[in-house]
DNA sequence: GTGAAAGCGCTAACAA
DNA sequence: TTGTTAGCGCTTTCAC
């Protein structure tokens, strides 16, 4: 029914090996033979079976991608970066959402290894000990994208979260603020808790400002919770906000304006993401640029090096960040 | 090196067939045998090779998903709907971006069929004749998600684009508007050109309002172009805007406000998407609810029916839409 | 309830 | 330059 390499070989009066060579662009085929085979392939509508090929060659040209949630624009951006580079290197992608659920992550890893992917790009706020153990034991290479593994056992691509947060808070401090609120994502996330929050504290300490726990509000990264956070903070009267992502920043802006305050005159806001939303907000958001697309792309590129057994010059890649100044802060 | 079904069989003193039965939860295994096999599987850390399984069984439990661009929130939402249902039915997803490029679409189809996916969910603004031909010839089932094939040859899941647009425009007409601008996405898209635009024209005609071509501005679905469109339209002074998606609607709102006009008092706006953004806009957007997640989920569900040779009661599924009234229109 | 054996469609030595 | 021949690791009859 379906036409196989054997059918082509028979019709072209050559061996399967020759057909295989033609299909795989092996140079050791006489042009005339190649042409003849190609003609038969065309006539029969032969399409190589990648599953059989994968079994024989032990390569599937497929990589697994495990991310929290593709419907979240940050992860979607990351995924696009991964996919573009994957396509460039002729890999396909098996994409799965983990919802940051450890069991799901573990199971997804297992499934993908079972499917014999050639490599895996993984993203999660927390890499549990068990997950780490499984990753280290994995027969196929894994790269962490925008995810921290403090043991540095697994390759990863990140930005300097601490430095970025420090610089953002310092900018607020330099603008004269004393009461700087921090609307932060879940503290279960390593990056939030160990990097951003620490940077916030140290930037304040370095400026001689006392740390006030009341100024920290943990949110689930959503617009609604950010709005609520601002309402909760009203009694404290913060004059500046450092906010963990663009969606929450828009919530902050709206809530602050509801209080009758003007941005940036009365209150300044710095976001941390710099997605398309940052320019769609009014006022437009000053934001730490968190290059998700690039992190995805570089992660995938790094993975290709592992898959090809290329030399790895740097296992823990740190990409540059910058602060994009727009209208939600007073700039020079 | 890697442990195979054969190793397990040897260690457990049973045949490969028995191990296979255990792994596949076949009931024809004595409990004692099952237990023994399971123990060996555990000890050896055996993980079934899905590629070998796929070759032998001719099923990969993988479906292909071809969408324009995962970094666009509409398609990301769709993808999440697809993935959730796929997971429910134990399928994995190979996700690829086509950027609506016909050659890429053709080539992706080919690649996925080569990878022996069990089914494909496809989305694109235009399904060319050649693409259609390939789809009809495809040995594996294909479902179109949010995409029109007027020949109805391929299964599909959509909403009533015409009805939704008609109702939106009628609402504007009923609110007394005569100069209703239509900020529409690319007219290369079937849905825009053959459904939405037609609905717009007929809703006006039915209200006895002359069609004015100048009120139609074709955009690339982006915030920036929508803003420009409003500026271009300034001389015509539209009093209402029907806009093809939320991002553009926000552009329209900002541009209208720059003209010193108030929404909805001076100008009304109806969007067409109803994403998270609709609630994050100020004023919040009245919008036709285009249920992308559901379209993805239903498409995938429909695909499972084809893959299982279940009875298909409806090949062309039409999902309900509704209009979500918020602040960008005057409501009763 | 269990086993033997024939493939699934291809790649990759190794020969020729 | 081309062909022969083992597998790759599993499922699936068909016997027993």
TrEMBL record, chains A, B:
<keyword id="KW-0238">DNA-binding</keyword>
<dbReference type="InterPro" id="IPR046335">
    <property type="entry name" value="LacI/GalR-like_sensor"/>
</dbReference>
<protein>
    <recommendedName>
        <fullName>Catabolite control protein A</fullName>
    </recommendedName>
</protein>
<dbReference type="InterPro" id="IPR010982">
    <property type="entry name" value="Lambda_DNA-bd_dom_sf"/>
</dbReference>
<comment type="function">
    <text>Global transcriptional regulator of carbon catabolite repression (CCR) and carbon catabolite activation (CCA), which ensures optimal energy usage under diverse conditions.</text>
</comment>
<dbReference type="Pfam" id="PF13377">
    <property type="entry name" value="Peripla_BP_3"/>
</dbReference>
<keyword id="KW-0804">Transcription</keyword>
<dbReference type="GO" id="GO:0003700">
    <property type="term" value="F:DNA-binding transcription factor activity"/>
</dbReference>
<dbReference type="InterPro" id="IPR006377">
    <property type="entry name" value="CcpA"/>
</dbReference>
<dbReference type="InterPro" id="IPR028082">
    <property type="entry name" value="Peripla_BP_I"/>
</dbReference>
<keyword id="KW-0010">Activator</keyword>
<keyword id="KW-0805">Transcription regulation</keyword>
<feature type="domain" description="HTH lacI-type">
    <location>
        <begin position="3"/>
        <end position="57"/>
    </location>
</feature>
<dbReference type="Pfam" id="PF00356">
    <property type="entry name" value="LacI"/>
</dbReference>
<keyword id="KW-0678">Repressor</keyword>
<dbReference type="InterPro" id="IPR000843">
    <property type="entry name" value="HTH_LacI"/>
</dbReference>
<dbReference type="GO" id="GO:0000976">
    <property type="term" value="F:transcription cis-regulatory region binding"/>
</dbReference>
